[in-house]
């Protein structure tokens, strides 16, 4: 067999692999890994979303209350007063819930809400960067 | 993971479905090509259990990056390259560098019916020759790519491939002798 014939012959020999007897098991294992990975990602995203939601809600309520305090002047219309009252109710409910979970003082330990927000944002960005670096190292 | 009709689809179609997170389509691709990928890793020198682990990692990575597969080459070749690179990374981590060990004893690589047994033939090559031939002719990597992946000079890689192929040719056709020509890969 000449060199010209031999190179493609070897390439074909590499490609011509009989199916392995445990292929079904291999496929099932892989599917299980893909499934658990997807579940893990969904749970992670859910937790991150919940934390982000709580921080955002807390931030919004704080802002509303501050605005409400500044505008508590004679002439404030009834609708705004009602809205403020609802906001206060929600705020106290949220505060109670946070106290029950023991995280009520999270933003009060010398850090403001905006600082907390930026710290959380930096942590998420760092995590994303670490993920990208790891992926790039994989291949 | 089986879905009626998937077995009739082309790899490119299945890859497009997998890119849209269709795990059953990806399962069909795995079913079609896992044996080739696992065999390649074993031929590169990985123990069967390690080869299977790396093949799984390669397919998971391929699933996550399915959008990057544009059908320019075959899906099997794409996954084989991923798997080969993962295996080389693992070797690097375990500090198993390509050694210039001598070839193992000659074993019969042609069965009584005259069929060529690639696995047995590869066993007669040195580790470096086996790796270079497998990367070039099994994973479809070019010589410069192999040199970069193995951190070896390009000339060394070419020598390993040439010597490896010459040995394989001798096994297949004992009377042929060495021709002194380079292989076409790269």
UniProtKB/TrEMBL annotation, chain A:
The keyword Transmembrane applies. The chain crosses the membrane at residues 40-57, 116-135. Keywords: Membrane, Transmembrane, Transmembrane helix. This is Uncharacterized protein. It comes from Brevundimonas halotolerans.
From TrEMBL, chain B:
This is RNA polymerase sigma-70 factor (ECF subfamily). Gene3D superfamilies: 1.10.1740.10, Winged helix-like DNA-binding domain superfamily/Winged helix DNA-binding domain. Keywords: DNA-binding, Sigma factor, Transcription, Transcription regulation. Pfam families: Sigma70_r2 (PF04542), Sigma70_r4 (PF04545). GO terms for biological process: DNA-templated transcription initiation. Belongs to the sigma-70 factor family. ECF subfamily. InterPro entries: RNA_pol_sigma-70-like, RNA_pol_sigma-70_dom, RNA_pol_sigma70_r2, RNA_pol_sigma70_r4, RNA_pol_sigma_r2, RNA_pol_sigma_r3/r4-like, WH-like_DNA-bd_sf. Residues 29-96, 121-170 form the RNA polymerase sigma-70 region domain. The keyword Phosphoprotein does not apply. Coiled coil: none annotated. The keyword Isomerase does not apply. One of its GO terms (molecular function) is DNA binding.
């Amino acid at each position: 067999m000449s060199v010209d014939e031999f190179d493609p012959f070897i390439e074909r020999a590499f490609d011509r692999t009989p199916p392995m007897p445990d292929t079904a098991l291999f496929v099932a294992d892989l599917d299980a890994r893909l499934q658990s990975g997807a579940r893990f990602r969904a749970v992670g995203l859910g937790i991150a979303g919940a934390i982000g939601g709580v921080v955002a809600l807390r931030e919004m309520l704080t802002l509303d209350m501050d605005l409400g305090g500044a505008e508590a002047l004679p002439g404030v219309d009834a609708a705004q007063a009602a809205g403020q009252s609802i906001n206060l109710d929600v705020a106290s409910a949220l505060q109670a819930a946070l106290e029950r979970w023991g995280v009520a003082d999270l933003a009060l330990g010398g850090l403001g809400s905006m600082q907390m927000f930026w710290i959380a944002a930096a942590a998420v960005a760092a995590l994303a960067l670490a993920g990208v670096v790891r992926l790039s190292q994989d291949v | 993971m089986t879905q009626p009709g998937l077995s009739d689809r082309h790899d490119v179609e299945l890859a497009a479905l997998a890119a849209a997170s269709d795990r059953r389509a990806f399962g069909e691709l795995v079913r079609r090509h896992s044996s080739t990928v696992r065999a390649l890793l074993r031929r590169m020198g990985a123990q069967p259990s390690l080869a299977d682990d790396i093949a799984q990692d390669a397919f998971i990575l391929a699933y996550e990056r399915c959008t990057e597969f544009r059908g320019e080459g075959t899906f099997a070749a794409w996954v084989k390259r991923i798997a080969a690179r993962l295996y080389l990374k693992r070797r690097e981590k375990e500090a198993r560098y390509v050694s210039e060990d001598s070839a193992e004893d000659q074993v019969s690589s042609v069965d009584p019916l005259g069929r060529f047994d690639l696995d047995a033939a590869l066993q007669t090559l040195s580790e470096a020759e086996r790796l270079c031939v497998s990367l070039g002719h099994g994973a479809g990597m070019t010589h410069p790519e192999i040199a970069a992946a193995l951190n070896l000079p390009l000339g060394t890689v070419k020598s390993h491939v040439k010597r490896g192929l010459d040995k394989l040719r001798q096994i297949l056709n004992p009377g042929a002798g060495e021709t002194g020509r380079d292989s076409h890969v790269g």
